[in-house]
Automatic annotation (TrEMBL):
Name of the protein in question: ATP synthase subunit beta
Keyword Cell membrane: yes
Catalytic activity: ATP + H2O + 4 H(+)(in) = ADP + phosphate + 5 H(+)(out)
Organism (species): Rhodoferax lithotrophicus
Membrane topology of the entry: Peripheral membrane protein
Main location per the UniProt record: membrane
Function: Produces ATP from ADP in the presence of a proton gradient across the membrane. The catalytic sites are hosted primarily by the beta subunits.
Alphabetical list of CDD domains matching this protein: ATP-synt_F1_beta_C, ATP-synt_F1_beta_N, F1-ATPase_beta_CD
Cellular localization per UniProt: Cell membrane; Membrane
Length: 467
């Protein structure tokens, strides 16, 4: 069958999600979207193989696609809807609403492939972004317009911490939150939608999902679609945007699948040879300009808890703060399970957070590090064998660990404990008072899962009155 018009091609071969198409006329450009079966099957051109053939990756399942079928070139790239009316809505990678409501009216469609902001237009101010979560604000302050990563294996609380941050930020700030689900579970998207609706923050949010069950091409592009929406709010509406990505590892994984299907030789540990450039293409678009900022918090799944995995290493290099969630802390019930000794933030310098905050954070780290060294001795010989000074260090460290836990709003229905938001000043003075031994005689358990430090005294008094 010969195609009748110059922008029609013919399917030559289909291998899973990869489709080879022959065009007798001019070849479609790279990133162009092609439709088959009246738009039921959508593919994106990734390479031009020779004068007549292109190789494309499918963004939809390819069932039913056969050799010889006609393919229509749409003449343009994948586009995402932008505008005020996309707020409080849920979209897929094609910008179609997936929340069972009519499509939003009055939207513009923009290409998802955009260049990062020019260096001359970037803002270079360093401001701290308060989250209301003690351990983050005190030890790993986040940067407004920066990128923070939540690193952890499966089931240590990345998504819970992300949802808590959305809850805290949208409550405080007049910004817009964009949640981008890349290759995560459908259940999480649906639960997040209901939670945000119940919390009343949905009017300030946009959600974009490319779930686990979708083809790799779709998971590979959904991050670009979300970024295009974020750039609209930053550049056109001059608003601050909080971009939450769950999970950036799945973007790298989708790229590896696409690369394997395209027939490229894998590099170390089976990842695609172009992983660095693909990740940079996404991450470098997250930036501050003089008119607005995109602050990004990204969950990063760490395969088999191995932080030397290339996916984790490449992601680390883009971040201004990395929060490492530890399975050991989670098993001890110390939530949020952030390991303060492994985590770091480039904002924790005296020039940005101030002398007092910096000195306090350093002293907290030192105390926790000394306790970590003494743990082996305690396990073998018992606490009694330590010198009095070391015993004091252990007491302070254990109280600090308990004080840096916090009940979350998003887990109220499971724990029965009301969520707490703690200002930076309250968190700092609490840590300071513990380090000055003011709470030496207060039992450790009274400091566990509280907000401000004074709640410990109330808790202690309540325990005393119980028979």
């Amino acid at each position: 069958m010969q195609p009748s018009s110059p922008d029609l091609g013919t399917v030559v071969s289909v291998r899973g999600s990869v489709v080879d198409i022959r065009f007798d006329g001019p070849l479609p450009s790279i990133h162009n979207i092609l439709h088959a079966e009246q738009g039921r099957i959508v593919v994106e051109v990734l390479t031009q193989r020779d004068a007549h053939h292109v190789r494309a990756i499918a963004l939809t399942p390819t069932q039913g696609l056969a050799r010889g079928m006609p393919v229509q070139d749409t003449g343009g790239p994948l586009k995402a809807p932008v505008g005020k009316t996309i707020l409080s809505r849920m979209f897929d990678v094609f910008g179609q609403a997936i929340d069972r409501q009519p499509a939003p009216l009055d939207v513009q469609w923009r290409s998802v492939h955009r260049a990062p902001v020019a260096l001359a237009r970037r803002s270079t101010r360093s401001e701290v972004f308060e989250t209301g979560i003690k351990v983050i604000d005190v030890l790993l302050p986040l940067e407004r317009g920066g990128k923070a990563g939540l690193f952890g294996g499966a089931g240590v609380g990345k998504t819970v911490l992300l949802t808590e941050m959305i809850h805290n930020m949208v409550g405080h700030q007049e910004g817009v939150s964009i949640f981008c689900g890349i290759g995560e579970r459908c259940r999480e998207g649906e639960e997040l939608y209901r939670d945000m609706l119940a919390a009343g923050v949905l009017p300030h949010m946009v959600m974009v999902f490319g779930q686990m069950n979708e083809p790799p091409g779709s998971r590979f592009r959904v991050g670009h679609a979300a970024l295009t929406m974020a750039e609209y709010f930053r550049d056109d509406e001059h608003r601050d945007v909080l971009l939450l990505i769950d999970n950036i590892f799945r973007f790298i994984q989708a790229g590896a699948e696409v690369s394997g299907l395209m027939g490229q030789m894998p590099s170390r540990l089976g990842y695609q040879p172009t992983m660095g450039t693909e990740l940079s293409g996404l991450e470098e678009r997250i930036a501050n300009t003089d008119s607005g900022a995109i602050t990004s918090i990204q969950a990063v799944y760490v395969p088999a808890d191995d932080f030397t995995d290339p996916a984790a290493v490449h992601t680390f290099s883009h971040l201004s703060a990395s929060m490492v969630l530890s399975r050991k802390r989670a098993s001890e019930g110390l939530y949020p399970a952030i390991d303060p000794l492994q985590s770091s933030s480039k904002m924790a310098t005296p020039g940005i957070v101030g002398e007092r905050h910096y000195a306090l954070a350093q002293e907290i780290r030192r105390t926790l590090a000394q306790y970590a060294q003494l743990k082996d001795i305690i396990a073998m010989l018992g606490l009694e064998q330590l010198s009095p000074e070391d015993r004091n260090v252990v007491g302070r460290a254990r109280r600090l660990e308990r004080f840096l836990t916090q009940p979350f709003f998003t887990t109220e229905q499971f724990t029965g404990m009301p969520g707490k938001l703690v200002s930076l000043e309250d968190a700092l003075s609490g840590c300071e008072r513990i380090l000055r031994d003011e709470f030496k005689d207060v039992p450790e358990s009274a400091l566990y899962m509280i907000g401000k430090i004074d709640e410990a005294l109330v808790k202690q008094a309540a325990n005393h009155h119980e028979p």
